[in-house]
Amino acid sequence: MSAAPAPRRSPVGAHQPSAPLALLAHPSAELYGSDRVLLESISALREDGFRVVVVLPSDGPLTAAALERGASVIVTPSLVLRKSLLRPRGLLRLLTAGPVLVLRHRALLRRLRPEVVVVNTVTVPGWLIASRLASIPAVCHVHEAERSASSLVRRGLNAPLVLARRVIANSVFSRDTLLDATPRLAARSVVVYNGVEGPRTATAPRSALDTAPLRLAFLGRISERKGAAVAVESLIELRRHGVDARLTLIGDVFPGYEWFRDRLRQRIAESGVGDHVVEAGFVDPVWPLLDDADIVLIPSVADEPFGNTAVEAVLAARPTVVSDTSGLREAGAVFDSVVSVPPGDARALAEAVVRIVEDWPAARERARRSAVDAAERYGVPRYRERFAAEVRAAVPDLAHPRAASDHGRNASPTTT
């Protein structure tokens, strides 16, 4: 067995040998929803007095971001559960590579001896198994809610969570979906809403829509389940009815799903709206593009555990149209700047856009108010406090040291 990789040390903050160590295992190195929440989890634990080591399966944008938050980073292979593993070849890999990787995880845990392991998402269950083998308390942070999956798949996916002392779900929908498949987790499961970092100052929507075109933005993965095709169809519908609108697609495809982007481009070209669609790709920070938008579309067609992108749109003070489903409903329904439509219904999406345009002065004011409300409800400080408390609850005998640093605190956004 090869030697365990050495961590890349952060230049930020002190790594006191006496401070407790938390190891955070995560399935990707990108900067989308759960990746960004991981960054706030790092800051939460750092502020609560922990040293933090993040383990990633590959290098990527998240690596540098984690280092900036004061964590050390280890890049080492992990078995990440994907739909491809349900095919015969994938199941073979799961059965052969899985045990080897679990033993490597255990060796790393025995070398580092963290006080607690936080497994971020249910897609890297090997870390829960390794934590039990190494006799280290584990917490699982659940970002998934696949209620449409079969009960057998959901029970299998959630089975490793019985090895966790604490399960943190990012929404009531996520928790209820989890408990529907695995009721025995009820006593150890809690809900902590994601902390979503907004802009330092949200730019108010333009005062009047007197200059064409109407600027729409789709925010999220360019994928079928996120509703990118629905957003395009709504643009086609709007233009068919004489609305001069433009759509900016903010996001990129998941590796291996380039076929969907190609199919979407073909539909855009065939429908004649190619000159009115902009592919911005993945953009960080996203705020300048949201500042440029009039209305944001979040038209997911599948279950969403939590509406991170919807909250980002609200924090940016933009009227937002979301699918009336699952965690999107839970995250957005409390804001009067959010309009809900049936999932997959491009006509309803277009009609919602028209209603917002026809009531623009009031919609603009609702967006300004909701940005302030969202900063309070889903603010980063509240999340950090709650998350750190739940992690510490998994190791109740651990002494509570003084906070390691104030690095990374975020100001609540205001509107101008």
From TrEMBL:
Domain Glycosyltransferase subfamily 4-like N-terminal: 33-196
GO molecular function: glycosyltransferase activity
Protein's UniProt keywords contain Glycosyltransferase: yes
The keyword Glycosyltransferase is annotated on this UniProt entry: yes
Keyword terms, alphabetized: Glycosyltransferase, Transferase
Pfam families for the chain: Glyco_trans_1_4 (PF13692), Glyco_transf_4 (PF13439)
Top-rank lineage group of the source organism: Bacteria
This protein's name: Glycosyltransferase
